[in-house]
Structure prediction request, 222 residues.
Amino acid sequence: QKEVEQNSGPLSVPEGAIASLNCTYSDRGSQSFFWYRQYSGKSPELIMFIYSNGDKEDGRFTAQLNKASQYVSLLIRDSQPSDSATYLCAPDSGTYKYIFGTGTRLKVLA
Amino acid sequence: EAQVTQNPRYLITVTGKKLTVTCSQNMNHEYMSWYRQDPGLGLRQIYYSMNVEVTDKGDVPEGYKVSRKEKRNFPLILESPSPNQTSLYFCASSLERNQPQHFGDGTRLSIL
Prediction:
């Protein structure tokens, strides 16, 4: 069974700090990776996706991918209380199936 | 407005009474998928569809059926619902398999 592992949290960070969310995956065939944000009671929405090893930046968000280590992370700079949500990692394995991580709950403390 | 629409948003029903949750997207997406979300278990894929008339099982297909007769619609059918199917259900679509998915607002099902 292919697995996607995330620390369930909650990860608590003070406002203005950097939040670091991590995801490891077992399927070496995974080519691209999606990070979704899910507010309580709402549907997931795309935050970032990354295809290549290295960093990809979009505003306050940076996705980092290391395929050799089978590790992808999401950094949120200058964290705001509005960033408090659950963050889901989803590798694209190259098949039509998707396996999501169980998510990391982030709490940004004002 | 580009969107994925699910109906109903909430449903309480009883064991064994057939129900259908509808899903429709207006973005001409090829790929559509159904997920259920349970506390501690995350999002788990039930069924997916690559295009019209092409569907396949995800990780938790037991007790569910789907069909894709039109590109925009992908209904989820519970022929004989049971209490263990009480969950929050999401429909999602993407232009192609490896593109970001757009999610509907969710359907909260309670099977008594």
